[in-house]
Design brief:
By secondary structure, the chain is of the alpha/beta class. 45% of the residues lie in helices and 14% in strands. It has two domains: 8-104 and 212-288, 3-Layer(aba) Sandwich (Rossmann fold); 127-209, Putative methyltransferase TM0872, insert domain (DNA polymerase, domain 1), CATH 1.10.150.170. It has a seven-stranded mixed beta sheet with strand order 3-2-1-4-5-7-6, with helices on both faces. α2 links the parallel β1 (22-25) and β2 (46-51). α7 packs across α10 (199-209), α8 (158-171) crosses α9 (177-188) and α11 (212-225) packs parallel to α12. It starts with 7 loop residues before the first helix and ends in a 6-residue tail after the last strand. The chain binds S-adenosylmethionine.
């Protein structure tokens, strides 16, 4: 399993971790970025560690156990966590969003994120709420399915697959990741390329199930409200649609007087690209709000 945090060095340098007295990590996952922050910041620095996945949050509690009461854990999606902290009047020097699924979620076969293993079609990062991928596949109209596969997955043959799903479920529900994978293979043919033909379908469904795009749009302005003067917002996106939202948001803020620390998105170093495949599509953008860090 690979729990190495993506672009941790670049993030810590851009947010200037040694001068931060607090961090809000909205996607704590396995806690790798928090550990990197703790190693560089002052011994009194505080962290708010959030994740919408209770399993990930439990794991990060173990990983970060040695940090004691310097870390406060919150379960919830990034919007919910920001709202709770704003209500409590919290201010931080840096906010981090490392978007998407973790390798742990992909490797946990029962969660239904991976097309390589047969499992129930779930794909929820937070299993305590919301619709599963199975609910969407078996309950959405053909137009909705087409939009999900096209917008989130970037699937050019979205209509054909959506129609095949609707035709299949008239006979029997599409219950498992294996059912869906075979259905896509039968519809598009099994090409021998490096990327499986169902990859985009799985990505589109995962993004729709977790409302990932909508959450980013709602989270970014809230994250800014939590920043102290001179504080930094750092976002790592792996999906071009998500990165576009972050880019436009930060450009608008820069026009209003905040400072873009990444004129272009930063990417992983050649060494990281070699050792961590997942890092290859990472794009990091960082914005510093007006004012001097105290
Ligand atoms: C890529 S991993 C983060 C890895 C982490 N930075 C580390 O160092 O281990 C993404 C994590 O964020 C969570 N997540 C993704 N989007 C989220 C959101 N909008 N709100 C809260 N948690 C989210 C996922 O459940 C997952 O555990």
């Amino acid at each position: 399993m690979n729990h190495v945090p993506v672009m941790a060095g670049e993030v810590m340098e851009l947010i200037d971790a040694p001068s931060c007295s607090s961090l809000l990590d909205l996607t704590v996952g396995a806690g790798g970025h928090v550990l990197a922050f703790m190693a560089l910041s002052a011994p009194t620095a505080q962290v708010f560690a959030c994740d919408r996945d209770e399993v990930a949050l439990e794991l990060s509690r173990t990983t970060l156990d040695a940090c004691g009461d310097r870390v406060r854990f919150l379960h919830g999606d990034s919007e919910q966590c920001c709202r709770r902290l704003i209500e409590q009047g919290v201010q931080v020097d840096a906010v981090l969003l490392d978007l998407g699924v973790s390798s742990m979620q992909l490797d946990d076969v029962d969660r239904g994120f991976s097309l390589r293993v047969d499992a129930p079609l779930d794909m929820r990062m937070d299993v305590t709420q919301g619709q599963t991928a199975g609910d969407l596949v078996n309950g959405s109209s053909v137009d909705e399915l087409e939009r999900i596969l096209r917008d989130g997955g970037g699937e050019p043959r979205a209509r054909r697959i959506a129609e095949a799903i609707v035709a299949r479920r008239r006979q029997r529900p599409v219950r498992t990741t294996g059912d869906l994978r075979v259905l896509v293979e039968e519809t598009l043919g099994r090409r021998g390329g490096r990327i499986h033909p169902a990859t985009r379908v799985f990505q589109g469904l995962r993004m729709a199930v977790n409302q990932e795009t909508q959450l980013i749009e709602r989270t970014l302005p809230l994250a800014l409200q939590l920043l102290a003067p001179g504080g930094c917002l750092a976002v790592i996106a792996f999906h071009s649609g998500e990165d576009r939202i972050v880019k436009h948001f930060m450009r608008d803020r820069a026009r209003a007087g905040d400072r873009l620390l990444t004129k272009r998105p930063a990417g992983p170093s050649p060494a990281e690209r070699r050792t961590n495949r997942r890092s290859r599509s990472a794009r990091l953008r960082v914005l510093a709000v007006q004012g001097e860090r105290s």
